[in-house]
Design a protein that fits this description.
Length: 158
Amino acid sequence: MPYQNIDAAISAADLLAIRDAFATIKQKLPFLVSMTVEERKATFKAGPGSLSFVQNALAAAQNFPQILPPSFDKDGFKRDVDLFGVLTELDTESESLNSQIDDTRLAVGGEAMKAAAQVYKLAQAAVDTVPGLKPVVDLLSERFQRANKPKASGAPTT
């Protein structure tokens, strides 16, 4: 079903509650890391599709401990597998929410841009008859001047 025109607002109290909820999430996950591009490249990849593999490997390690060397940290492995499962679930939920936020932002931004373009055209038409409007039209026109600026030399053109 296509979305309808969005006519909503977020109260200051609700925005504060949302920000507090994000802060609570960060507080409850103090072990979260930020990886560099190089670290991401060097890390063994384990996406959501890897969850069953690591869970099955954990079951094998628990059911056949004799295959593991004494130095293998069975308890650490179990904690990693359990946390990987929980984070995979949280990631799925946050990705879904992020997708909805992004789609709504795109839709509302499109609505706002359409209305702003209409205001800009009306202001352009009235610039010669409304005192003080020229600086506003000049300010609004900056958006389109940036968009029409030629690319830097040496940049590939298509």
